[in-house]
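Quick one:
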Amino acid sequence: MHQTASIYAAFALRDILIMIPLRHFGYQAVHQMLMSAADLFTNSSTPRGCLLASAAASGSVEAKDVQKAVAQVRRQMISRVRLRIEQDIAAGLLPEDTKAKSLASLAIALVQGMSVLARDGGRREDLRAIVTVAMNAWPSHLA
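Output:
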């Protein structure tokens, strides 16, 4: 079971990381990533949510390896989103005082929160509505 959990975590998180297209402006990339996560987490052909949140929430000794792997993937996700945001700041698309790491962390926290809500039975349309509301917090975006 531990090996299955590790494999599931790796693939679900990898899929979300791939959803961050760096060719788009940061706003578009994050919006697409979050909408895709809402769809992935509520897909009827896979378990609801993903191990992203479950592994982090489990305090068991057996989950330590999974927790470390998941934390590393989350750090990679934050780094990738932060890079895109920093590029937008440099290009003048976002204000100079935009806190790139905080904004990137917010996006990834949304992914984790949506995973939990999906595991609790949250509907796709509800998760997508959360994304819409959350994206209103994006500073001076080009929508």
